[in-house]
Amino acid sequence: MRHQAVQTFVLPGTGNELELKQVDEKIGDEIKEGVLVEPSSSRVVPIRNFIPRFVDDSSYRMKFGWQWESFRQLQIDRINGTTISSKRFYAGTGWSPEELRGQRILEVGCGAGRFTQVMLDAGAEVWSLDYSNVVDACWTNHGPHPNLTVVQGDVYAMPFKKGFFDKVFCFGVLQYTPDVKRAFMSLIDFIKPGGKIAVDVYRKEKWPSRWTSKYLWRPLTKRMPEELVFRIVKGYMPWWLPIDNKLENLPFIWRFTNLIRGIVPCWNYTGALPLPEKQILEWAILDTFNSLSPKYDQPQTMGDLRSWFDESKLSDIEVRYGSNGIVGTARRAA
């Protein structure tokens, strides 16, 4: 954690500023091990492995970050040699690289940092927050960086000063929270007047499809040990993926094949992403596992998301279908 980042933190619940009480280990300009403290109450926040930790250990927190031990670098553009994450970021937000330069951005739900890289490359100053231990993967991928602060924290109790950020970005996260609307509403106060927000949610579908097959299995898989779910997905995906591709090329029995593909969970990006066969398989394993294992998965309608923007009294609201479901962007009134 950068020393200057201390001044951006407050203790969730009280809003009181924190002080750096001790530094146990420092590497360059980054504090690796230390303690933040709220002076009035002596409540402490540990800094472990360069990251301030504002949440306690929990099975949900640990579970949701486990998969990134195997796929930490898979979706990072500079590592996989594509612009997949960059294109999705700019298409979804409507922002430009020039617009991001020098801006303070709060990234809620950073994962392993596939979008963190995009914002850093544009010259933004980024605070990347996640609830799970995936923050360690994000730090390993992108730290140390003079414009990056990685934080382990709760979307419902974020440890930042209100109105501090030029932009708030939250993709691929809200549907995985216990209360999706509350999670969305918790983002608004951290946007400075005139600042912008961009979020997305999964789309609630009326009819079964290959992307909703997970809901047939989730009542079981979300209660299973995650290691078992991972082994199952990793076991069947190499032989099912070629079958899924063949079914895709049988349009004359499309209705029947679509039914089969709607039963077997398989996030197949063949032909959709510019990746070699090996990486297509890895993305299929990762995203299929992600669809089956989270404790929560709550898709929304376009009307739901629009109503939340309206209730927040944001301006320049745009809610539309996007690559991951439904995308919403807006500006906070000056």
Whole-number average pLDDT? 91
Q: How many individual helices? A: 13
> Cα distance, first to last residue?
31 Å
Rg from alpha-carbon coordinates: 20 Å
- Major sheet, described briefly? 7 strands, mixed
Q: Which structural class matches the secondary elements?
A: alpha/beta
> What is the strand arrangement across the widest sheet?
7-6-5-8-9-11-10
Poorly predicted sequence stretches spanning 5 or more consecutive residues: 59-64
How many strand elements?
11
What does this molecule look like?
With 334 residues, the protein is of the alpha/beta class. It has 13 helices and eleven strands. The protein has a seven-stranded mixed β-sheet with strand order 7-6-5-8-9-11-10, sandwiched between helices. It has a four-stranded antiparallel β-sheet with strand order 1-2-3-4. The longest helix has 23 residues, at 226-248. The protein is globular. The two termini are 31 Å apart. The model is unreliable at 59-64 (pLDDT under 50).
